[in-house]
Amino acid sequence: MLFNSWEFFVLLLITFGLYYIPALQKLQIPILIAASLVFYGYHQPVLLLLLLPISRCC
Question: Where are the transmembrane segments (predicted)?
Fold first, then answer.
């Protein structure tokens, strides 16, 4: 996913929309982690196997 693609723009809008909902304030960090996993795994999902163990420890 490139920064100038429409997929990135949609992901950005969804992430910002969910991040700033007051009822989801306690879920802000998991929302950002999920969005980053979607971003990095968009074209090569096999690379998520490298990122998942790292994101589980935080």
Answer: 6-24, 31-52
